[in-house]
Write the structure tokens for this entry.
Amino acid sequence: QVQLVESGGGLVQPGGSLRLSCAASGIIFSIATMDWYRQCPGKQRELVATIAGGGATNYVDSVKGRFTISRDNAKSTMYLQMNNLRPEDTAVYYCHLRWGDYWGQGTQVTVSS
């Protein structure tokens, strides 16, 4: 069956960096379009970044220039490198597979001094 497992969240100071990982199984990862979403308390889940099977990427305006989405098809893993983090980036971050609408369990990112 399809499984998505996120890791890499944590507590970081403003201006710091984190790298999230999403390990996928049960799919042909190399052709899958994948997303990172985030959800802040009391708010709707927000699409942060997308990477297509061919490697094309897209970002929400608020993270452009700070976040980088990437993938390692040999490891069936997607990444989100987050730099220059801000308090407003605090959220639970979710990995999403568009084919079949599968979600990971989420990983908490907290940006605070």
In short: The radius of gyration is 13 Å. The chain has a mean pLDDT of 95. DSSP finds no helices and eleven strands in the chain. The CA atoms of residues 51 and 57 lie 4 Å apart.
